[in-house]
Design goal:
With 373 residues, the protein is α/β, with parallel strands linked by helices. The protein contains 14 helices and 16 strands. The chain has helices at 16-30, 73-78, 94-105, 124-132, 134-141, 152-155, 207-220, 235-244, 262-268, 286-293, 307-312, 324-336, 338-355, 358-372, and strands spanning 2-6, 34-40, 48-50, 53-58, 62-64, 67-69, 84-89, 109-113, 144-147, 166-168, 190-195, 224-229, 251-255, 271-274, 298-301, 316-319. The strands form 3 sheets. It has an 8-stranded mixed beta sheet, with helices on both faces. The model has no long low-confidence stretch (mean pLDDT 93).
Length: 373
């Protein structure tokens, strides 16, 4: 089968959607299918084959919000031979052209709906128009809409009328890349780990609330370090916030972590935290799966896609968004109760092995492709 993935950006760009497309495409290639990805040239790494996936990168001229505008995209799609086309929301432009060419060529269109395109910031009027006109057309053209979490229908304002098209397929994790290491502690510090892009579009990941919660922990114990992976235009703001809270000496901003170092940093922590605050914007939270694959307990808010299973299988703590006191208390419980933390760690690895392998997710997506064709 010839599968065409149209997306905003692709590996080695780091982000949840990019991670999803990369791993899904790689697994589809392993299953014997030809996958071509068309995306913007951010970062500028050129065309080529990545893990068997044919990647075509197109120059972009500017961005609107977090969307790369690539004028040559329709011409590049025009040259492709494909059986099925797969695109992704919340990235206008790429999904718009994917829908148009699927319609023109009478080819099936699959959309993974990661999260809503939110009507905020200086582009909120344009987004308001897009959601009420173009988004409805695109979702009407789609043969199947994939959601990565069952409860996203409760959060989204746009999916209710298309619920008959929706298939829920959870994200996966590469359990061969993320696995427990037998690290020897070099000090007696307990490490809390957070990982995200530090820009305006990822403010919903809740780092500001984590910093406030961590300040409460420092009031009670000093042998704790907050390790923050990722970079972006908001890094200085978060660094200043740490200073204002008088915890800057207990916070380590690492910047962008290379892919081959991620497994180490997950293993080096004592608890991983993702305190997301927006149910509209948080699609799933793949980094939580990566932490559990490394046998680490996690603390998340109840809007992340895997939160239900974290509670059901006791792999960590689930808190309400923006509840700084409960967030601090949940982290403290894990940091102070070694036996509970160990049990959560084992449960987490078992959960991802049984439910969240990428081969399982790719197989379910492939069944959708076959049914549509």
């Amino acid at each position: 089968m010839k599968i065409l993935q149209i997306c905003n950006r692709f590996y080695p760009y780091i982000g949840g959607t990019e991670n999803y497309i990369y791993n899904l495409s790689k697994e589809l290639v392993k299953l014997g299918h030809k996958v071509t990805v068309i995306c913007a040239d951010e970062p500028k790494t050129g065309n080529g084959i990545i893990d068997g996936v044919n990647v075509i990168r197109i120059k972009y001229i500017f961005k609107i919000a977090n969307t790369n505008i690539t004028p040559l995209l329709p011409l590049v799609i025009l040259k492709q031979d494909f059986d099925i086309i797969h695109s992704h929301i919340p990235h206008p432009w790429s999904v718009d052209w994917a829908a148009l060419f699927a319609f023109i060529r009478s080819k099936p269109l699959i959309i993974t709906y990661h999260n809503d395109i939110t009507e905020r910031g200086k582009y909120r009027f344009l987004t308001w128009i897009y959601n009420r006109v173009f988004l409805k057309i695109i979702l009407a053209i789609a043969g199947v809409i994939i959601n990565t979490q069952e409860k996203y229908l409760e959060y989204s304002r746009h999916l209710e009328i298309y619920k008959d098209k929706i298939k829920v397929i959870p994200c996966g994790v590469d359990i061969e890349k993320f696995y427990p290491l037998n690290l020897t502690k070099k000090d007696n510090l307990k490490r809390v780990f957070f990982l995200s892009v530090l820009d305006e579009y990822h403010r919903y990941k809740g780092l500001d609330y984590l910093l406030k919660a961590f300040a409460k922990i420092i009031e009670k114990r000093k042998n704790v370090l907050l390790v923050i992976g990722g970079d972006g235009v908001l890094r200085r703001e978060y660094e200043n916030m740490a200073k204002d809270l008088s915890i800057d000496s207990y916070v380590n901003f690492l910047g962008v972590i290379p892919k081959d170092k991620l497994n180490y940093y997950f293993n080096d922590c004592d608890v991983f935290v993702l305190p997301s605050v927006s149910s509209e914007q948080e699609g799933f939270g793949i980094v939580v799966l990566e932490a559990m694959a490394c046998e680490k307990p996690v603390v998340v808010t109840n809007i992340t896609g895997v939160s239900e299973y974290i509670e059901r299988f006791n792999t960590g703590k689930v808190v309400s968004p923006k509840d700084v006191t409960f967030l601090a208390g949940s982290m403290m419980q894990i940091l102070e109760d070694r036996e509970t933390a160990l049990q959560m760690s084992r449960n987490g690895r078992m959960l991802v092995e049984n439910r969240y392998g990428w081969n399982k997710a790719a197989g379910e997506v492939l069944n959708i492709y076959r049914n549509l064709i």
